[in-house]
Amino acid sequence: MPNRKKVVLATRNQGKVKEFNRLFADAGWEGISLAEFDGVPEVVEDKDTFEGNALKKAIEISTYLNMPALGDDSGLEVDALEGRPGVYSARFAGEDATDEQNWRKLLNELEEVSTEERTARFRCTLALVIPGEEPIIATGACEGVIAREPKGTNGFGYDPVFYVPSMDKMMAELMPEEKNQISHRARAMQQLLAILK
């Protein structure tokens, strides 16, 4: 692709940037991390839905840089916790919590919950804002079960405690190419790319 279209990814999370660029590879787009730009204001994620946050990020960054921007908001919905942590997944254990602090808090809260009732899903909403065009929204989900012990070293976030029955592995045990077939972000991206075509 000599002429890749550039889109700013509304994230400084390098794990997400790598994942997006693997997903973008065939579509003629190249994702650029926010970290490449100086002085871009931090977007406050204060909406109570994934779509609200994704759209807010994409609109603010696209407007500020006058470039196409992709906002994503994703998180974990646990049925036994009535959908929590949801939009608060990244700060479940507190504002500056590490991934491990977040999943440890989750395991503590689920300690008494039976294996059958530990169903959960990762959900992702993508919002693509191209200056002068209507925003495009795409969503994806990946069903799983919250394990009792962490396992695996790939991925980030809750991946070490999220068991994917269809793969018989934890999300953190999957190779990137396996994850990109089944992850919530991959599914949202497939939907987005289908809309773009």
From TrEMBL:
InterPro entries: dITP/XTP_pyrophosphatase, ITPase-like_fam, RdgB/HAM1. Its EC number is 3.6.1.66. Mg(2+) binds at residue 73. The keyword Metal-binding applies. The active site is at residue 73. It catalyses: XTP + H2O = XMP + diphosphate + H(+); dITP + H2O = dIMP + diphosphate + H(+); ITP + H2O = IMP + diphosphate + H(+). GO terms for biological process: nucleotide metabolic process; purine nucleoside triphosphate catabolic process. Keywords: Hydrolase, Magnesium, Metal-binding, Nucleotide metabolism, Nucleotide-binding. Coiled coil: none annotated. Substrate binds at residues 11-16, 74, 156-159, 179, 184-185. Gene3D superfamilies: 3.90.950.10. Its cofactor is Mg(2+). Binds 1 Mg(2+) ion per subunit. GO terms for molecular function: dITP diphosphatase activity; ITP diphosphatase activity; metal ion binding; nucleotide binding; ribonucleoside triphosphate phosphatase activity; XTP diphosphatase activity. Pfam families: Ham1p_like. One of its GO terms (cellular component) is cytosol. PANTHER family: INOSINE TRIPHOSPHATE PYROPHOSPHATASE, INOSINE TRIPHOSPHATE PYROPHOSPHATASE/HAM1 PROTEIN. Homodimer. Belongs to the HAM1 NTPase family. Pyrophosphatase that catalyzes the hydrolysis of nucleoside triphosphates to their monophosphate derivatives, with a high preference for the non-canonical purine nucleotides XTP (xanthosine triphosphate), dITP (deoxyinosine triphosphate) and ITP. Seems to function as a house-cleaning enzyme that removes non-canonical purine nucleotides from the nucleotide pool, thus preventing their incorporation into DNA/RNA and avoiding chromosomal lesions. This is dITP/XTP pyrophosphatase. The gene is ysnA.
